[in-house]
Amino acid sequence: MSVFYEKFERHAHGEGLKGQSTHYCAGCGHGLAHKYLADAIAELGIQDTTVLVSPVGCSVFAYYYFDTGNTQAAHGRAAAVALGHKMANPEATVISYQGDGDLASIGLAETVAAAQLGAPITVIFINNAIYGMTGGQMAPTTLMGQKTATSPDGRNQFNGMPIKMAELIAQLDGPVYVERVALFSPAERRKAAKAIKKAIQIQKEGRGYAFVEVLAECPTHLKLMPDQSEKWVKENMVPIFPLGVKKDTVGEPWFKLAEPDFDAKHFVKAVGASSDATDRFCKTFATHLNPIDISLKLAGSGGDGAQTAAMLIATAAINEGFDGTHIPAYGPESRGGTSYADVHVAKDEVLNPASPTPDILLAFNAPSLAKFGITVKKGGFILYDSSIAKDVKPMDPSITVVGVPFAEIAAGLGNMVVKNIVALGALQAATGLFPKETFMAAIKQALKDKAKLIPLNEQAFDAGVKAAQEFLAAKKR
Amino acid sequence: MAQVKERPKPFLVSDYCKGCGRCVSVCVKGCIAFADEINPTTGVVPIVLDLEKCTGCGLCIDACPEPYGLRALEAGEEFELQDPAKLFGDKLREVTKPVDIPAEKVALPKTGPLVIKGNYASAIGAILAGCRHVFGYPITPSTEGAELMAKLQPKLGGVFLQAVSEVATVNHMYGTGGAGLPTMTFTSSPGFSLMLEGVSYMIGAEVPGVFVNIMRGGPGLGNIAPEQADVKLACHGLGHGHTHAITLMPSTPQEMLDLTILAFELTFKYRSPVLVMADGYLGQMTGKVQLPDHMIKPGIPSWAVYGDRDHRGNLISSIQLQESDLEVFNRYLQTKYESMKVEARSETFLTDDSEILLVACNTPARAAKGAVQNLRDHGIKAGLFRPITIWPFPVDQLKALLPKTKRLVVVEANAGGQIENELRLALSLAGVEKLPPITSVRRFGGLLPQQTEVVDHVMSICGK
Ligand code: SF4
Ligand code: SF4
Ligand code: SF4
């Protein structure tokens, strides 16, 4: 019984001997690791659910051989790809099989992040201290003094030092099992087979992330006979990369993902949609402000609540069956300093949601008034906080200027937070954008989880209305 | 006395021996030696077995790196008479024939419109399209998308995983998309640059996935204000190799939702990544968003590597080692790109009699729309042509408007005229030789063309 394909159809279309032989060089450690992996999959009875992720490196073609689900990943990204598979199907047994360049050099960030995440995947790391596929260049695990194509005089300090992955992974909190094994003797091979099986078993049981580093032979680039390369690994690699279990804190199964939920009710609730029809109070669109599309600018400093007020106007418009948009000041300006919002209320469709020349300006402070007052259209409205700016004269006589002490009124109500609601009240009274009920419905909607605050907001709104009416009446006199 | 079961002895089909000798040194009984001659079929010197003294210890089998090299011969098995390919016993299971598990529609109740930001609308669109696997790395101005996903996905049995980088993000998507499930990310220009290797792999391996790129100012870090400077990246620079992706350009929060849903439909239809590209302004823009009447419960396509019995035989890979294979594959990809051209979409505004045709996408299209209205008020017959797909470019739709168009004005938020270049290329490939004069209104660096600038420009070219 075998988890290997009967015929390696993907190996040069299975032609000739290739249908039964691997692409690995004679004596390559990959073949042994493959065999132990295949045995483990067979013994654990998980062939159907296994997804093997092959890397870039000599084992790039692992999918030629394993009769399991197969994915071939970009260089270094096998662990990230493996996590994608595991999240998609937590019942799958996902094995990331990688070499030293892939796992310990280009993919180091993905390797460490996946390990630290701790989700149950199995990572088999083949460390042969050299780049095989590209032709014998230096690996991150190449030994000091070892000659390679890119360290022709032997690796020295300027090339950095060999990275000890098993130890590095073991000191992370995510992984539960980390072992380094080798292939150079019957005893080591047995341990290697056992470790690989254990690392997969841990995943099968949902107990966590497991990592097995395999010291392997690359006779081709060591330029040694296979038996000599076994000896080389034993004598040269093992002292730098000591064998054994580096971490074993395997505990209870913990990994479980919820079933994806496609229940319509759950969705509607999650996104806060509502089937309740909103009441409409507007008899007509406020054509006296603009025949089709009323543009507003709300401007103040950070805590003035200009954005909330803007949102309430847009929401009110949409509740009434009009179109509404809101764009917050965007970019660095939004961090402290002025905060402004462009709002549109359109009969049918907002064409341009920006308000470079607003019909209405609602200014919470003097700088905003100075900056945007000059942009207001002829025949438009300027509402400003008269607690801060006094006796504002319009730039154009056709503009109606209304000063209401937003801040003072809010302070009088004992809560500065409602300053923007006072302003909305003033806006209502001065412009007749919507009836009061429209504003209040939007405010109540926004406060649906804080119903206690509704009376205060209503008081604030009414106070704003009253103050604006008084201002306008006084002006007429 | 317990019966001692005779342990199996090794056997070898000489052709499958690579002559590495790893088995030779482990046999203490001296049963294994190199042959005297080269095997003419393989060109290597294989080993030969002399099993007289063999104890069946199996050490040689464990030492052989070849799957079909040394193996145990069960008692009574006669290997010489069998077909070498059948020598290795029964398979655990027959390779399965992959099956298609179809997606389903789930009816939604009628609800009132939501009043939400573009980024939120796109996230909700993804959820409606059945996406329950979202990966991402926070980057302004796209972060609201990831934030809403982090909040909503757990409530809907979904996964939001904050990746270690955009590189990891796209590869998580490669895994989940390869498993056949809808997956997406929110990103912004520099983050999208980082994802391009993965996008190329996804195209090569035919893995679906949706990328929402909320474009910001570049190059380099640039700034976090809106730009449309990734158009050339989307249309001509999606990583290495022969790559293209359908690229949708919404211009309202409603479209952020609708086009994200469409993106999922298309990414599965074509088994290829799809991009939704908006400017940073649109991501932040709040507007009216109506939900559709149904949501998608995804299935599992037949090609997926899901990690179950039904899909075990599948492979996700972009490797075509033999040159002729890669040529065949790329020819197939070109055919696929060609077939995507039917997805070209556009919208027009007041073009029935327009002589000045504005062309714009995303938020600049809103400014242009406003400008069209203003220009009409000034008696100028202006109209707007808004590509909804920038790739494929809706060239047929544009061509139809050209006969009465006296001038084309491309309004865009980048310095080099990336949208204009798409337009020119598309018209040129479509064999349109005579173009009306093309002028442009461009702002960039984080500034968008304003309605007034568009109006002024058109007035000036009309001599008013
Ligand atoms: S180059 Fe080295 S690692 Fe690669 S297949 Fe050959 S022996 Fe194995
Ligand atoms: S099974 Fe043991 S004794 Fe027999 S050939 Fe193999 S190593 Fe030698
Ligand atoms: S280990 Fe296998 S491939 Fe190597 S010489 Fe022995 S039988 Fe041949």
Strand content of chain B: 15-25%
How many domains of chain B? The number is 3
**SS elements, strand count of chain A:** 13
Q: How are helices and strands ordered from N to C of chain A?
A: HEEHEHHEHEHEHHEHEHEEEHEEHHHH
Largest sheet of chain B: 7 strands, mixed
Helix content range of chain A? 25-40%
The end-to-end distance of chain B, rounded to whole angstroms, is 113 Å
Write out the CATH superfamily name of the largest domain in chain A.
Thiamin diphosphate (ThDP)-binding fold, Pyr/PP domains
* Cα gyration radius of chain A (Å): 35 Å
- Structural domain tally of chain A: 2
The CATH fourth-level homologous superfamily of the largest domain in chain B: Thiamin diphosphate (ThDP)-binding fold, Pyr/PP domains
DSSP, total strands of chain B: 21
Q: What name is given to the CATH topology of the largest domain in chain B? A: Rossmann fold
Oligomer: heterodimer
> CATH top level of the largest domain in chain B?
Alpha Beta
CATH architecture designation of the largest domain in chain B: 3-Layer(aba) Sandwich
Spatial order of the strands forming the largest sheet of chain A: 2-1-3-4-6-5-7
